[in-house]
Structures are given as C-alpha cells and as structure tokens.
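SUBJECT: protein chain
CONTENTS: sequence, structure tokens:
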Amino acid sequence: MAEKTSEPGPPQPILIQSGSVLSVEESVPVQNDDTTSLQSVKSAPEGLENAIQRYDTLNAQTDPGRALSYIAVIFLLGGPILAFTGLEGSMDLEEAFNTCCGGIIIGLVLALISSAQTSAYQKEVRLAYDTVKAEANVRTPPANQSHVFLAVFLILIGFMVWIFVPELFGIGIIMIASGVAFASLGNTKNNKKSREQVLTQAKLELKRRRGR
C-alpha cells in the first residue's frame, strides 16, 4: 500500500531571541492609529498655549514706531509754522525757506523710519494671531462694515464741495480728511474686536483640550 505524503508548505522565517523562537508576524510591532492620534491630541494644548502666550506678549508691547511718529509730526508742522512766523520777524525769505524745507524733510525721514518699525511690529503680531487661529482652528468672526459707508459718503461729499463750491474749499478738505480718519479708526476698532473674540475662543478651546 502506497504511503500518503503531504506536501510541505513554504518555509516560514523565524527569529531567535533570548533562546525563544518567534515568528516574524509575532515580532513585528503593529502601529496603532489611535496611539498616533492620541499623541497629536496631547501635543496640541502645548502648541496652542505657546501661541497664545506669544500673542499676548507681543500685543502687550508698545508700538516701537509710535513715539517716533509723534516727533515726525512735530517737525512736519513745526518747520512751516516757524517759517511763516519768522517772516513776520527778523527772518528773511531764504532762512524761512530753509526752515520750512528742513522741518519737512526731517519729518518725512522720521515718518518713514516710524512706518518701517510699525510695519515690522504689526507683521509679528499678525503672524502670532494667525498662529493662534490655526492652532485653535477658530475662524475670524464677520466684521461690521457700516463705518465704511459713512467714510465713503464723507469723502464723496468732500470732493463735491471741493469741486463745485470753491468758496468752501476748506470744508471739503476737512470732510475728506474726516472720512479717511473715520475709515481708519473703524478698521482698527474692528480688528481689535475680532482679535479679542478669536483669542477668547482660543482660550476656551485650550481649557477644553486640557480637560480631556
């Protein structure tokens, strides 16, 4: 009677470790997606906390270009004022011209330096603010744009008065300047309010993540 033989399967690789025999399937660690997500959740509060602290630190600092801008305004206004008042006294026309131009030139240079310092500072604050939004996954709330319509209305009326009523030229200039200033102040107020709301939501999100 013929003997029945079973065909052997392909050889299975084995690992020998500390006198014990383990198959390759048992020795390879299995990566768990839950572990990876848990690590990311644990690291998220630290990143959000650092972002909030950096934004608070930068926002609490004084704008480095503000003081220099005040000095620039003094030179821009002081030079022409001294020139015109000096003409009524002992100052001749050449000295008055040099005083006026000198004050304006110095004021413009200081204004450019102040603007560069302010721009660099605002860029850092904006970057820290964007980091807080990204870490907390918070959207910017919609801003109130009602001040824009009023500013545009003042500027248009000012131009109309300036063009069609030359006798009221000064009033037209004042209305145009008021419209520009109103728009600038409105944007500044909206940005400040929006950042405060985002920061409040980010701090609430940080508390929620810490409570997990």
